[in-house]
Amino acid sequence: MKTISTKMGVVGASSTILLLWLALPGGGGLWPLLAVVCIPFLLVVCTGSRKQAIFCGLFTGIGHFLIQLYWIVFVLGRYGGLPLFLSVPALVLLSIYMALYILVFGLLARRFSRCFSPFVSVWMIPCAWVGLEWLRSFLFSGFPWMDLGYGFADVPLLFQSADIWGHYGLSFLILLCNAYLAVLIITDRDKKEMTALAIPVCLVFVVTAAYSTWRWKQMDLILHDAESITVGVVQGNVDQGQKWNPNQREKTVLGYVEQSLQLLQKTPRPDLLLWPETSLPFFPVKHPLLAPIEQLLVDGQVSLLAGAPWFERDSVHPETIRLYNSGLLFDSSGKIVASTSKSHLVPFGEYVPLKEFLPFIAPLVEAVGDFSRGEITNPPACKTAQIGVLICFESIFGEISRKWVDAGANILVNITNDAWYGQSSAPYQTLAMTKLRAVETRRSIVRSANTGFSGFIDPKGRVWQLSPLFERWQSSRKVQIMTERTLFVRGGYLF
């Protein structure tokens, strides 16, 4: 086995960081680079010492996630009120935590390459990567931000197999290609043996490509005959700094009403209006600002799903009031007929973890808020549509979309407020991740974001009528209602 010097190890790790940025959405978006993106990293960890592998894993992971998550500094600084000397260390600490998964992967890849033949290690290396991505999706509440499989998000034809094995299957394919090429470079075995290994590796890609092509054509026929509902999306572009200002509430609501009226005067006329997360910046219980909304819905004979804070009394302890980040469905009479609440809250944004064991952080709880988790049951109904509601960053969790569809949802909506991200790469990344949810579940996804991106994603992962960022925008479109339950929906992460 060939060896690599420490200097070359630093170069290899830096090369992988650069290639990852160039390949993934939000960076260069040059998806063909995915075929070689991890090769420099694998050359280092598989041929270097254990100490080199540890250093390379941390170096690569920290560098990669600093680039991917730099926008957290803006979120914590501008909207969280934290000074740079606190927001920057917060980013660094998160990047170090995320890098630990890369570190473990590097050590596993090194062990596999040394203890097993290429015929075994080539398959075990991508399995290790996928297993760690899956672990990161739920450990410590989970943060599966921009897993490697999302690199295909701009080329829908390439990720049609996600309805079988989820986006993790795409990560597997990428690492399989990288692992084979890396082993081919470093192995001292007869090249005829490596050529023989290429046959099953290539077969995996051929079968996947054949399935994706067949499924793509099949979905065209299914979508042509599918029932549909017309949804109108409103992007209000409300400044985050003014969103919760009591003096701005009326202006905010009337702005959404005005944009909705424009949609009702056009063709196709919406059956359902969709407003973003917390587009109603007040508790909508006997509030005077409900009057113009009710008039809009009664006059237009249209339903509305809008984000709003909500509260309920605890059924066991009536004196306890639980707060929720919710999506409320209003019928054409202006009455609230259903509510769903966010089931995956943002730690230290919507709740403080372990607060019952850490009484000294009570001031932080008061500053952050103390929301309760909702449950995924009984999708709200509008005509023949059963609506699965993804609130905020719930669209990055494949399991949440899967549960909604398993509960009966035949379309999905994503209401969110991405103003926090500013003009960063984050809106591009969240859009990329949401595309995969459409193919995994084979559901249309309608996205309404306060500042963008808003738009329509069909069950093939194609985006239609995408809004610009930080502009007022509204549009209507027919979206297909699907009832198919994919293998991913039925089995989850069996892969």
Question: How would you describe what is shown here?
Answer:
The chain has 14 helices and twelve strands. The protein has 495 residues and is α/β, with parallel strands linked by helices. A six-stranded mixed sheet has the order 5-4-3-2-1-12, with helices on one face. Helix 7 runs antiparallel to helix 8.
Strand and helix map with partners:
Blueprint: H1 6-23, H2 39-47, H3 50-68, H4 72-79, H5 84-115, H6 118-136, H7 162-186, H8 191-225, E1 228-235, H9 249-264, E2 272-274, H10 290-300, E3 303-313, E4 321-330, E5 336-341, H11 362-368, E6 381-382, E7 385-391, H12 398-406, E8 411-416, H13 426-441, E9 445-449, E10 455-457, E11 463-464, E12 473-480, H14 487-491
Parallel strand pairs: 1-2, 2-3, 7-8, 8-9
Antiparallel strand pairs: 1-12, 3-4, 4-5, 6-7, 9-10, 10-11
Helix pairs in contact: 1-2, 1-3, 2-3, 2-5, 2-7, 3-5, 4-5, 5-6, 6-7, 7-8, 7-13, 9-10, 12-13
